[in-house]
Here is the input.
Amino acid sequence: MNKLPKVKTKSKKRLGRGYGSGKGGHTSSRGQKGQKARGKVGILFEGMKVKKSLLRRLPMKRGKDKFYAHPKPIIVKTDYLNSFKDGSKVDIKALVDAKIVSLEDATVYGVKILGGEALTKKLIVNVPASKSATKLIEKAGGKVE
Here is the structure.
């Protein structure tokens, strides 16, 4: 019977927990005085470098939406569209009725059709679709509006 080797994971040293902790009693390995020893320095802080700061070197982005990721649409592969009948119209309402997407998610995030396996039905699609999905839909005899 094979025995697995013992794995010992070492926990990281906790800073500033007294002299016996093994890592920094008095200054907690932060050196002596100064801004970095006392508190947190902002991620974009560069001191007095005003002319060539990082934000000025990057391409300009405006507005308050620049620092967080925007929600992406719900992806529906072309395989799921095979459940519809020939010649039927596919829009968000039809996808919700077929229980492929939930109504709340579709209204908040939107829906996008991406290419997957081959499509066998002729469909009229009123939902945003990728290039590969558009090719598959048109190859099956349908169209994207």
User: Anything to note?
Assistant: The longest strand covers residues 74-77.
